[in-house]
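ingest -> validate -> predict -> emit
validate: passed (alphabet ok, no gaps, 72 aa)
predict: started
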Amino acid sequence: MPYRTSAGKRLLEVDHVDDHTAGGRDYPSAMIALCPNCHANKTRGAGRNELRERLRAEALKRHETWRGKDQD
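emit:
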C-alpha cells in the first residue's frame, strides 16, 4: 500500500459497498476498507459497477469468516 498516515500506518477509508445515501446497509458485512484511489474508483470510476460487485462479495466473505459464518 503506497498510502500512509503521518504516523506511518496504512491509509484506508471505510466505505459502504452500496452508497449509504442510496440505501446501502450500515452493517460490517456491507462495508469494506479501501485505499483512497480504490475508494474514488469505486465511487466515480468507469468500471465502478463491476468493482462494486466484486467488493460486495469480498466484504461478505471476510465478514462471514470473521464472524464464523454468522449473519448480521
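The chain has a mean pLDDT of 88.
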